[in-house]
Amino acid sequence: xxxxxxxxxxxxxxxxxxxxxFRPSRREFLKIGSLATGGFMLGVNFQCSGPKGETLTFxxxxxxxxxxxxxxxxxxxxxxxxxxxxxxLPMIVADELGADWKSVKIEQAVGDEATYGDQNTDxxxxxxxxxxxxxxxGATARHMLMExxxxxxxxxxxxxxxxxxxxxxxxxGQQVDFSDLLDLLQDMEIPDQETLKLRKLSDYKLIGxxxxxxxxxxxxxxxxxxxxxxxxxxxxxxxxxxxxxxxxKVINYAEDKALEVPGVKxxxxxxxxxxxxxxNKPLEGIxxxxxxxxxxxxxxxxxxxxxxxxxxxDYQCAAQMEDMIRETLGDGKLRRxxxxxxxxxxxxxxxxEKTYQAxxxxxxxxxxxxxxxxxxEDGTVxxxxxxxxxxxxxxxxxxxxxxxxxxxxxxxTLLGGGxxxxxxxxxxxxxxxxSRAIKKPVRVQWTxxxxxxxxxxxxxxxxxxxxxxxxxxxxxxWNHHTVFPAIGGTSSADELHPSDGEMGLGCTDFPYDxxxxxxxxxxxxxxxxxxxxxxxxxxHHAFAISSMLDEIAEVRGMxxxxxxxxxLGEDRQLSFNEEMEGEYxxxxxxxxxxxxxxARMKRxxxxxxAEANWxxxxxxxxxxxxxxxxxxxxxxxxxxxVSRDENGKITIPEVHYAVDCGIAVNTDRIRSQFEGGxxxxxxxxxxxxxxxxxxQVKQNNFDxxxxxxxxxxxxxxxxxxIESQEKPTGVGEPPVxxxxxxLCNALYKxxxxxxxxxxxxxxxx
Amino acid sequence: MEKFTLAVNGETHEVTAPGDMPLLWVIRDLxxxxxxxxxxxxxxxxxxxxxxxxxxxxSCSLPIxxxxxxxxxxxxxxxxxxxxxxxxxxxxxxVPQCGYCxxxxxxxxxxxxxxxxxxxxxxxxxxxxxxxxxxxxYNRIKxxxxxxxxx
Lengths: 765, 151
Known about the structure:
The complex is a heterodimer of chains A (about 775) and B (about 150). By secondary structure, chain A is of the alpha+beta class. Chain A is built from 20 helices and 30 strands.
């Protein structure tokens, strides 16, 4: 069975499937709802009856139930890794239902796509994909409750409403708890999904407000449980020595010294899957199984392993970077073409040509990968894991153990950060394989060094952009060459170009009104595991494009903000398909339902420049930089302010973002994603880089793979949310891409030195 | 293997462990107190911060043999009902995103306020520089510490 996660930016053509299921039309709910509502009508699965047949729990669909204590339980089916989604989706159900938010209990779903729909928490999808289904889940129950109350009081149900866990009838002043209607609900029919009425946006009490995250109390009390915190009686801890180079094979190993460490019980080999091992397979390794983590760590240190390092043993990333830069000088594979760039560049009065480089990045979630697996005597497996994609974890375990997926249960814990790393279930498969081998529960614990050495890295990249200006200074030609080892290269040696998905992340969707555009990609081989990191290829594409546009504005003598507003051209909705070689994936959505709307982009740009008091000149020793970038269907403009302190060190006093993400669901979590996004992007811009020498990662821990610390963080981060009634879109990733070029453009203004390579070599605080 | 008697959150615990076992693994694996987190194992990230006699230390890098009679406080013992001013301020400002590093942040901040009840912004930044947050909650952490310092 081929394992393909449904991710919009993956090189696989799975977008159609996703949009068929989840296009925001009636179909997506019928797909999810038919199973769920069917359960209620049949009286099985979702309805719990007492000994006399009385209804104890009302559960009209898979997402919610109401019990006799008037407690509303709502299922969170997407993974919580810090975005607040475990709060923000259930709160939509609760708001539509009219539940009392203080009497709502949130339960985390197991991995079960058939019941809950897509659970792959990635691609800033959750709000976009599930805003409507969550409203409908709440509305279905709300209408049934109103019907039941209408029957009880002999009034027209349409005169009823639900608030704070009660149905109320304004005309008669009657009110009743949801739980007092459970018996009556037995005879209620599921409302017709076609005519189901949803509340008006103005009617919501939670949506559009600041709602604190459900888990905040447990977190600050130390009671919140992450993957690494899960225990089972009789469990063992495993720490694994993995292949130092991707594709390396164990020639032989000596376990005697490891077994001498008190507490070490067993040493077990895990087989790898070659130099292009795929996204869901473990690396080859030797696992040390022990009673506790420290024994396992010491046991591993005592192992002696002889490796055949394989085909990647001579890989030097610096040499590949030189090759990639050279590649961009020639003609590449055409990915988008409009007009005739070569002729336009030939006739241009001035041609600018710049090359941009960005390094490999590791995710470095503060919780390193960890997973607990229990292979049971009956041949089933139960997993507890901090996974972004429980269904893929389930399928991958089933595949590795040659089981039916029905025999694998994946419980999702809180994730101590995800950023794309914990989509890949390699560590979950490790735990399952080891548990089966020793017939005991096994928790695999990665150390920080394991995490830095064996990640699925954000790819390093080279880009060359040629821009042509005519005699009047108009931008008439844009030629963008991009090259980086693609995500597809992790699974196949033949995948040498970025996929349409990766190209569509901020490169082929170049939105500016330029008459001649030519976008090309070049070949690069993957020598390590390439994955996706918060905003993926948008990171390097936005860095190059928005840095270049700033430089072009300067040459044209224009204010950078005015320049971008003018380049966006007339207010219009863009579809790139007619100019695209292949298909523009549009993050898995139909371009007609989610067009690229230049007016929405202009609105965020105008807002951010007003809020930040944009100034193109240095004032009081402070300089501002600007960039705008749409990603994951969310429009973002960003202004970063930099300053040099008395010691000559750079600080970032202020950051302003304006965002149009359609309907704003949980405003506090939108702001927190932008605050966090600015800090995450600061690390990418200022301090992080992974280097390979002889196929091995040079960095080991947070001393050499650095992420920013509190003193380096921007001092103030303001997020200005555009009021909108457009369909809601995600905010997990969109803050990252524009921040980096906005920072670089600000630094240029301060120092007069353009930045062409990340991380920035500058003296930050 | 040796026997150690530890004073943890006001209670006495006996554990058997090799003398080089970092206090972190004693806390997590032997005492099953899961609020103290593993992040780096090298005192570089602060996720494992606890107090020894009121002083913030990185438990991943202190062998159990060095603890002696010092009183250990973990996040579970920071306050009787989770009502330490920092824990309240953390909730008021909804500081956490993923939450994993936050117990270490709170323990570090608690030691800071113990020594310096009204730290300046710069003093907060310096004191908290050893605690990493990958989600990027530094600004809210700073605000929450300022709120708690005023209570």
